[in-house]
Amino acid sequence: MAISCDSFNEDTNQVIGRHQKNKNHIEQLFKIRDWCHKYNVLFKINTVVNTYNHDEDMTEEINNLNPIRWKVFQCLLLEGENAGPEALRNASRFYISEDVFNTFLERHNNVPSLIPESNAKMQNSYLILDEYMRFLDCRSGSKIPSKSILDVGVDNALKFSGFDECMFKKRGGIYKWSKEADKLSW
C-alpha cells in the first residue's frame, strides 16, 4: 500500500493541501502503517519534494515508520496537466530545481528505504493511461496521447507511449511489491 506524505509538519501540510479538518495526517499515517503490519501488507510512502517541504528533515519519522520503500519525487511539471494555461491546477509554485532536490536527498541519504526519483528518471519511466485508455507520452514536457488500447491494442499503443523500459529498470521499477513477489527472484 502506497501512502502519500509530503511533510511531517501540520502547517506545511495545510499550505500544500494535505490537511483535513479534524484529522491529523501524521496520526493517520501511523495508523495505516500499523494496519499494514497487522495484516502483512507491504507499506510504502511517497513524498513529493517541493517549495514548501524541501528544507524539512524527515529522517526520524521515516525511520520510525519503516516503510519497505520511501519514494521521493521531485515535483514534475507537465504542460496541460499541472502547468500552463490549460492546466486545471497549476503546480508551478511547488516546483524546485534539481540542485534543491539533491540537497534534500543528501540530507536523507542514511534512510535505508529511500528511492529517489528526479524528473529525469520519472518522466519516461512510467506508463500513464488517461480516462480514454490512451498512453500519455510525456517526453516533450506535455502529454501527447496514443490511440486507445481499446481500439489498437496494448502492443500498438505502447509504440507511441514514450515509455523508456531501460530507465524504468534503472530507477528500480521492478521491486518486491506484494507477498507473492517473495517467490520471484528479481
TrEMBL record:
Keywords on record: 4Fe-4S, Iron, Iron-sulfur, Metal-binding
GO molecular function, one term: 4 iron, 4 sulfur cluster binding
Name this polypeptide is given: Radical S-adenosyl methionine domain-containing protein 2
Listed cofactors: [4Fe-4S] cluster
Lineage per the UniProt record: Eukaryota, Metazoa, Ecdysozoa, Arthropoda, Hexapoda
